[in-house]
Amino acid sequence: MTKKATKTGKELERRVADAYREMGACNVEHDVELVGNQIDIYVELETPGRLRHRIAVEAKDWASPVGIAIVNGFADIVDLLRRERLIDEGIIVSASGFSRQARNAARTYGIRLLEPTDLDVMVVEAKAAPAPTPSALSADDFANQLSPPLQIQDTSVETDFPTEEFSPFIAGPPITHPRYFWGRERELKRLFNLWKRSPLQNAAVIGPRRSGKTSLLLYMKNITTTPSRQLRPVQRADWLPKPERYRWIFVDFQDPRLGTREGLLRYLLTCLNLPIPHSCDLERCMDVVSRGLRNPTVVLLDEIGVALERHPELDDAFWEGLRALATTSQVGGNLAFVLSAHEPPDQLARHSGLGSPFFNIFGYTATLGPLTESEARELIDSSPILFPSADVKWILAQSGCWPLLLQILCRERLIALEEGEIGDAWREDALDQMAPFRHLLEVSR
Ligand SMILES: Nc1ncnc2c1ncn2[C@@H]1O[C@H](COP(=O)(O)OP(=O)(O)OP(=O)(O)O)[C@@H](O)[C@H]1O
Ligand SMILES: [Mg+2]
């Protein structure tokens, strides 16, 4: 990491480390090297579900505000370390605040920015909070007290969301805020209909790589409870009666912490606000759920193929237990599973050598293809600078209306317009950017 600008750099590092220790961190280390990158402070916090939240902190004890270059550089490192599953979150602490551009960039990359006084407040709050009991506190609540939300839980929408600070076109990460999700009306209608009445029913969301599976799961989780001021003017949100009764649990099997029986069961119980039995095995957890589940609950199992391929503990017996839970009369039809995968559940199970009847309970399959043309046009028309109609036609044709390809082409067109470029040179660049995802165009509607 970059050198300290003052001699007192170490003092700020010590202050940060002490603050996290006071907040109850189970491990705090200075100057840690992670895949060749020097991390000022490395912190591990533990949640009631015994899930570990790992943070890389960059401390800047400068006399002037930290600018965008530091945020960009640190975001690259955080991205790498997250992909390597070495950390869950990146934080920059600056003694003299941050520039506006730095704050905007940090928001885009999901980097938390703190000043020393924020740490003081966090310490006071952590000390004032009653000792958390697993049954009383969700993982979200717990992580919020000590630090920013747990990465694995951070799939809900911020209520004070400043929409003007988001990029108009998002290409790459899943869409997390409903305002930036387009189309899929038909699939949404069918899916939400499965959960309007009891018993809740199970569904599979199938689609090729990068087709929009994760974005759809997150949209379903968030849309019914996002305040209307954060949505587009005519965006539908009334999919369910009394949406506040519903609980949504998002499980990302790319997260190795959810790849063990115990890790996953603890996570589910924590999200459900149910007590975690001392010995957290399948039978005991099922017992707790069947006695304690009162609200309609939809468990979203993203990338279940990863669970089947990489996590041997999640075997036939485990999936059978989940099936029994979803079908037991004690749970009163209040529990449904949605899985996302590249292929239908029965094939998925067969290819992984599993024969569990869990994979037969998915009575509805939504297969993700391109958006309809009118949905694609809405996405294109959301540009802050309107595109010439010849470009709109070209974007529709080249993208085949796949949302990721639309996003890439629109982003490139917008940049060219913003930069005042004349002519069609942007089209060549845009096609280059789209090239890694051309496999989508080979999938028939
Ligand atoms: N409904 C949508 N509205 C707008 N953009 C979308 C939508 N669905 C997907 N996208 C675009 O597609 C990209 C990929 O979406 P997402 O990550 O949800 O796909 P995925 O199928 O889960 O991918 P993977 O197979 O890698 O897990 C997003 O970055 C976004 O640009
Ligand atoms: Mg995905």
Mean pLDDT: 85
In the residues, how many domains can be counted?
Answer: 3
CATH class bucket of the largest domain = Alpha Beta
Total of DSSP H or I helical runs spanning 4+ residues? 16
In CATH, the topology of the largest domain is named Rossmann fold
Which kinds of small molecule does this entry bind, naming each only once? adenosine-5'-triphosphate, magnesium ion
Compressed to H and E, one letter per element, the order equals HEEEHEHEHHHEHEHHEHHEHEHHHH
Query: What is the CA-atom radius of gyration, in angstroms?
Result: 23 Å
Helix content: 25-40%
As a percent range, the share of strand residues is 5-15%
| CATH architecture classification of the largest domain | 3-Layer(aba) Sandwich
Strands of the biggest beta sheet: in what spatial order? Answer: 1-2-3-4-5
Distance between the termini: 48 Å
Biggest β-sheet description: 5 strands, mixed
- What is the number of strand segments? 10
